[in-house]
Write a structure and sequence with these properties.
six-stranded parallel beta sheet, 11 strands
Length: 308
């Protein structure tokens, strides 16, 4: 039976409820100085506000080495009454000091598998997904290496793989490597940030491959997110792909938090976007985006898969 691996244990996929499919309670990168998400109290308040708005599950895509706050995630999940899915994985090279890249690159697949099956560090908190990054339109050597490690870890565990696409580009190259070269089932791949590259024809081609498509980031004012979101979703819903769409907030800076910053933060998905989505697409479609699709996208057999 497939299950979703949360920081408090494995759940039947049907128990997830309303899900923020891509967000961050904790995140720290040298690329965002002074904007670290490293305040446990602020993270707890953000989670509580998400729950108060009707949310039930938060999927945190923060990967290895970027301040995941693994020791805090179970406490926040319990205190806020929310399911939290943590991630293993590796981001773009620019996010890491040279010494971390040198020490970690040779053993990425091993790290991913260990964090998925045994736990992150000595916390005992198991990751429930793999988050890696593509490149800008094409895959550089670092991206190819991390994606290949993600594929190896997927085949060992069955874990879903979520992809950061730089400015939303390069998703076709990612599918070519993961699915065509490495044999990962497309239904185990979540293509992130596609709202940042609002090419409807490309989105339809990607959906036809069978992957999940994530539109995440209303908290990011410097990207084409909300202005293009509805037209992107409409093209895919009209094309018959409503069952492959996911929504997330992708709150990556302290400034973007609702509880302690300028917002809109995690609750905005439900307080701001969801009512508009219901008016445009109807309750049934919106339930698929927030409830049914995440239950499928983040579920795994947790015993590995057979390469096709």
């Amino acid at each position: 039976m497939v299950k979703v691996r949360t920081v408090l244990g494995d759940l039947a996929a049907g128990e997830l409820g309303v899900t923020d499919s891509h967000d961050h309670l904790f995140f720290r990168s040298a690329l965002l100085p002074g904007q670290e998400l490293d305040d446990a109290e602020a993270a707890l308040q953000e989670a509580k506000d998400f729950v108060a708005a009707g949310g039930r599950t938060i999927v945190q895509w923060t990967p290895y080495g970027l301040g995941r706050g693994a020791e805090w995630l179970p406490k926040i999940a319990a205190a806020a009454g929310v399911h939290v899915v943590a991630a293993t994985g590796f981001h773009r090279a620019e996010h890491y000091p040279a010494e971390v890249l040198e020490a970690t690159r040779p053993k990425l697949a091993e790290v991913f598998v260990r964090e998925l099956t045994e736990g992150i560090g000595d916390t005992g908190v198991k990751a429930g997904m793999i988050k890696v990054a593509g490149g800008f339109h094409v895959l550089d050597q670092h991206a190819r290496h991390t994606l290949s490690a993600a594929a190896e870890a997927h085949h060992a565990t069955g874990a879903p793989i979520g992809i950061h696409h730089e400015l939303g580009s390069g998703a076709d190259a990612v599918l070519a490597l993961l699915v065509d070269e490495r044999g990962v089932p497309p239904t185990s791949v979540i293509l992130g940030h596609l709202n940042r590259f609002p090419d409807h024809e490309l989105h339809l081609e990607l959906a036809a491959r069978g992957a999940f498509l994530a539109f995440d980031g209303p908290s990011r004012g410097n990207n084409a997110t909300d202005p293009h979101l509805f037209e992107c979703l409409a093209a895919l819903v009209d094309g018959g792909y409503a069952g492959q769409l996911l929504l997330g907030g992708d709150t990556t800076t302290a400034r973007a938090r609702a509880a302690t910053g300028e917002g809109p933060g995690m609750p905005y998905l439900l307080t701001g976007l969801r009512p508009r989505l219901i008016r445009r697409f109807g309750q049934e479609v919106v339930d698929r985006l927030f409830v049914e699709n995440p239950a499928s996208a983040f579920a795994a057999p947790w015993g590995g898969t057979v390469r096709s």
